[in-house]
Amino acid sequence: MSVGERDPFTGHQTTGHEWNGIKELNTPVPKPVYFFLITMGVFALGWTLLMPSWPYGTGYFKGLLGVDQKQAVARSIEEATAQRASWMIRIEKEDLAQIQSDTDLMRTVREDGRTLFGDNCAACHGANARGNKGFPNIAESPMLWGDNPQTVLQTVTAGINGADPNTRVSQMLAFGRDGMLTQEQVSQLAGFVTSLSDAATITDTNKEDIAKGKDLFATNCVACHGKDAKGLVESGAPNLTDQYWIYGGSRGDIYQTIFSGRQGHMPSWGARLTPAQIKIITLYLLDLRKNEAGTTAGGAS
């Protein structure tokens, strides 16, 4: 088969190759392919000349247009910093009540507070602030030391059982482990405490033990949790009659808490964050609690 032979059906020349009677045609490359190749080549050459591109030595070709993304980013950061400084100064100088009354400033607090909370608090309390086992639900549950804005600010600043000299101090005694109560007494006390938030746990078979647990509570627990077991903000002791439990509200969890004790820890954020950042987290949390309370009230109605 000759190279110059033409296919009688298509009119194209053949390449001279033949496999099992099938001849290879020498068909030309489609013109659109040339068009796109040329277009892409021109575009690439133009982009290389106009924009920063080829490196050389200690520098690079900056392009005919003089575009510098590094400077553009730097300018953007400077502008954002200047804009941020205007409201950060206000947050530093104004008290919590003034900031809460300013709708525009609170909008900024919510945005920045969400980021600060996510970076510093969500690992323990969860992204929605509803807590994890061992870490309280601070979006809905009663605050251990109260939810007055200045009180919350102080708690965030000094922490709980932290390194700050003014840290909040909180400790649940290990009544069983340290021998203050017998295992039977711990069990009776756990039964009574469980019944405070779940009356359905009281039965004819355990009423006597729960009554004994009540007496044990009066002797050992009222100093911190109060006679009504609703807690005391002065000592940071939690309310034992609601459904919010830091370490779990089952009878087994409560038994373990009474027997072994608890001593939670919250970092002293005053050593890690600026006063303005602590204010923002405090205001963000208070605003979150307000919205959660509104949602709950709306659902209940």
From TrEMBL:
GO terms for cellular component: plasma membrane. The keyword Chaperone does not apply. Its cofactor is heme c. The chain crosses the membrane at residues 33-52. It comes from the Bacteria. Residues 108-197, 208-289 form the Cytochrome c domain. Pathway: Energy metabolism; oxidative phosphorylation. Pfam families: Cytochrom_C, Cytochrome_CBB3, FixP_N. C-type cytochrome. Part of the cbb3-type cytochrome c oxidase complex. FixP subunit is required for transferring electrons from donor cytochrome c via its heme groups to FixO subunit. From there, electrons are shuttled to the catalytic binuclear center of FixN subunit where oxygen reduction takes place. The complex also functions as a proton pump. This is Cbb3-type cytochrome c oxidase subunit.
